[in-house]
Specification:
7 helices; about 140 residues; about 20% strand; Alpha-Beta Plaits; binds magnesium ion; binds adenosine-5'-triphosphate; four-stranded antiparallel β-sheet; alpha+beta
């Protein structure tokens, strides 16, 4: 508990639908602070590396092709319980099962194109943040 960091990704279909502003507003509304951010277009190799944890899953090639299909907005959120606050605001993986008022309920397309990604634990957050950002690109209080 206490101050944490979480990696957030606004996925290609949400960027394409011009939802960066709406989603950032929702995330900032939780009280979390954006301490790093960039727009990136991953190549397939980098997408496969990011989702390597899912390489045995049946949706791995579809997921990695999707995440490499267009620009994504990658940011680091910092604050009290950043990981659970981010995931609560995201909602369930499948938008059709996500609670009312969550980002995925409102803007997710389907279980794959579900608008956002958020780290699920402190260890994965640390790995994911270092995957996209150099320490000097992160402007938080807690390094
Ligand atoms: P994320 O890791 O993106 O924050 P999550 O933790 O809710 O989401 P995971 O189970 O880690 O979900 O799956 C990672 C991503 O893989 C999902 O966000 C979604 O894009 C995709 N995915 C998950 N389950 C399926 C599925 N059954 N079919 C297609 N894609 C899926
Ligand atoms: Mg996950």
């Amino acid at each position: 508990m206490g101050t944490e960091k979480s990696l957030s990704i606004i996925k290609p279909e949400a960027v394409e639908h011009r939802l960066i502003g709406e989603i950032v507003r929702r995330l900032e509304g939780t009280g979390l602070r954006i301490v790093a951010a960039k727009l990136l277009h991953l190549d397939l190799e980098k997408a496969r590396a990011f989702y390597a944890v899912h390489r045995e899953r049946p949706f791995y090639s579809s997921l990695t092709e999707y995440i490499a299909s267009g620009p994504i907005f990658v940011s680091v959120l910092e604050g009290e319980n950043a990981i659970s606050k981010n995931r609560e605001m995201m909602g369930a993986t499948d938008p059709s099962k996500a609670a009312e008022g969550t980002i995925r309920c409102q803007w997710g397309t389907d279980v794959e194109k579900n608008a956002v990604h958020g780290s699920d634990a402190p260890e994965t957050a640390a790995w994911e943040i270092s995957f996209f950002f150099q320490p000097e690109e992160i402007h938080g209080i807690h390094k």
